[in-house]
Amino acid sequence: MIIAALAACSSERELPDGGPPNGVHPAGALDPASDAFHGKDLARRGYDLHLCATCHGDDFAGGRAGVSCVTCHPAGPDACVTCHRDGPTSGAHLAHRAAGQACGACHVVPARWDDPGHVLHDPAPAEVVFGALAAQPTPDRKGAPRYEGGRCTNVYCHGDALHAGGGTDPAPRWEAGTPVGGCAQCHASPPPSHAQAACETCHREARHLDGVLDVPTGCDGCHRSAPVFADLAGSTLPSAITVGAHQAHLTGAARLRGPIACGECHRVPASVTAAGHLDSPLPAEVEFGPLARADGAVPRWDRAAATCSGTYCHGGGIWLASDPVAGTVRTPSWTEAVGQVFCGSCHGVPPTTHGPMTLAQCAGCHPSVDAAGAPIVTGSTSRHMDGVVDVDHD
Ligand code: HEC
Ligand code: HEC
Ligand code: HEC
Ligand code: HEC
Ligand code: HEC
Ligand code: HEC
Ligand code: HEC
Ligand code: HEC
Ligand code: HEC
Ligand code: HEC
Which residue's CA is the nearest one to ligand 7's atom 18? Predict the structure, then answer.
């Protein structure tokens, strides 16, 4: 019975789709150089492995034909690896594989070889259907990602959907194979919208090309103000000009008044991308607030000397300008941690407008200090150094 079936298979039957009637397969079915090679034959037949299975068995182990496919194709002739081996090498396939991009980034990946749209009676070329990364929504996207005329356009990965990325080749040609232009091909380094170029200052722990632009949104993301002020490089050393006396001001540690807010020395951005924040090169801008300008003072930050001058806070207001008290430090150094803040460093004790007296007497007329002469700080507020000379009239 088996022999009869085999005989029928090999000598009498035509291939169901009209193939050669005798010997079933023409000579050369096993010669990859021949036009009759079974791989090529299969391609001509729209990769219809179901047809082969009618004689070679549903499991391709021999069936009625008695010739097993699995001896030469151990994973089975219908396994992905039989036709794709370890993946295509055409165009830019290798470059993308090296970059860890899966087939699904650019194709619908079939679960089985005979899924619709894959290969069964689906002639070349392969369909390019972009995945989530290429189609990543952005406010600047001009349209859906496309593969057309051998080029990719509106593809997120290559910067074509980025805001003013400024790349040299955001719509690359597939056949170019390997990318050219280094970092600049997808976006300029930095992009033209940027005023600063030290990427790591703002793009912390960047997971590159993952569909998310990594910029911290929290204010402590790039520079920290608590518990200890840290500059953009993470330094907390007061001798660095970018750190200086931040901590002393932010905590009010000398107990001369409550803490001093950022806004007394800077324009404070409402958001990371607010005007005046990141849109100029370093150094950071020092723009004094109302306290430093109280009583008509004209404050100035001198970066070269690392000093402040003319600030109301340090005795530079008009009310003190005509009061030359020996030993005052009216141009304090930003980077010298000690020795600048004591009673008498900003105004005399008492000022020269007063008669001679001791610290213990100040409270008699000034409610901002206690009986020992120490400024009264309640919570984070004080009347000492609040912009108003407080005198009790009674
Ligand atoms: C009608 C039955 C039948 C069908 C359909 C069939 N084969 Fe065969 N095939 C055979 C038989 C029988 C043999 C054994 C050798 C022979 O008689 O040519 C064979 C042998 C082979 C061989 C071994 C080479 C050789 O010449 O011995 C290969 C490879 C092969 N078939 C591939 C295929 C592929 C690929 C398909 C589907 C496109 C297919 N066959 C469809 C019956 C069939
Ligand atoms: C004697 C060994 C041998 C047998 C038996 C054999 N094949 Fe092949 N087959 C090959 C070789 C060799 C290739 C080419 C591999 C290459 O190019 O790397 C190939 C290629 C293929 C391919 C890939 C075609 C492509 O376009 O990439 C398929 C599919 C295939 N065979 C199916 C079958 C089927 C179905 C059977 C059984 C009916 C079968 N083969 C039996 C040796 C065999
Ligand atoms: C970055 C996008 C991208 C990735 C990732 C990718 N492909 Fe392709 N693939 C393409 C493009 C573009 C073509 C060319 C289509 C054309 O010619 O119209 C192509 C063509 C093909 C072809 C037909 C041409 C050939 O060389 O055989 C196959 C098969 C294919 N891809 C399979 C895969 C498989 C399997 C993977 C995963 C291992 C993969 N591709 C990953 C974009 C990609
Ligand atoms: C019998 C051979 C064969 C088998 C088995 C096979 N493929 Fe393919 N595959 C092809 C060919 C040929 C193409 C190119 C089709 C074209 O040009 O239209 C292709 C194309 C692809 C593509 C590109 C997108 C497309 O559909 O055109 C992907 C992805 C792919 N195959 C993945 C797979 C996976 C995953 C498996 C296993 C589940 C698999 N293939 C099994 C022959 C095969
Ligand atoms: C293939 C295109 C491409 C190339 C080449 C490329 N980038 Fe990018 N880059 C992007 C995309 C797209 C983004 C958008 C953010 C994301 O998805 O990670 C990005 C974002 C960035 C960011 C912002 C932080 C982030 O990842 O979110 C930095 C920094 C950056 N790239 C640096 C570089 C450097 C340095 C190089 C060269 C070594 C480079 N890029 C090469 C596409 C590219
Ligand atoms: C001073 C902070 C800062 C520095 C330094 C910086 N970036 Fe950015 N970058 C940003 C911010 C903030 C955005 C988001 C802009 C927006 O949302 O409008 C951004 C956006 C981007 C984007 C998306 C495209 C765009 O224009 O929105 C890329 C790509 C990028 N940066 C790459 C870089 C690279 C590469 C460097 C270093 C060469 C760098 N950045 C240095 C803050 C910075
Ligand atoms: C992406 C990194 C980043 C984030 C997040 C960030 N900053 Fe900045 N910040 C900087 C850089 C860089 C500078 C220096 C800017 C310059 O050169 O003027 C700066 C400077 C400042 C300054 C000094 C004044 C100035 O503009 O130069 C203040 C105040 C400030 N930031 C407050 C904030 C606040 C408030 C937030 C939260 C809304 C915030 N920052 C979030 C990077 C950041
Ligand atoms: C007493 C005035 C003062 C106060 C208050 C102050 N700063 Fe500054 N800030 C400065 C000075 C002075 C510099 C140095 C500017 C330079 O480098 O030229 C500076 C620099 C910076 C820088 C740049 C650091 C770097 O690495 O380049 C940031 C960021 C900053 N300040 C943020 C803040 C924030 C946030 C606050 C509030 C939590 C704050 N500052 C409060 C005076 C002040
Ligand atoms: C960093 C500069 C500075 C230092 C140091 C300083 N003061 Fe003052 N002081 C001021 C300013 C500015 C005023 C102006 C009034 C105001 O704005 O409260 C002032 C005003 C006063 C007044 C007048 C009443 C009032 O508060 O308005 C008294 C009293 C006084 N200081 C006592 C002291 C004593 C005591 C010390 C030492 C513990 C001291 N000051 C250290 C800056 C300073
Ligand atoms: C007898 C009352 C009295 C005593 C005691 C007194 N002050 Fe005054 N103080 C005043 C008056 C009144 C003013 C306001 C002067 C004006 O508005 O021109 C003043 C103003 C000030 C100012 C502002 C600068 C200036 O010259 O106007 C400072 C600083 C100050 N006092 C510090 C002190 C200190 C420190 C002590 C203790 C050592 C002290 N005062 C004790 C009455 C007093």
Answer: 284
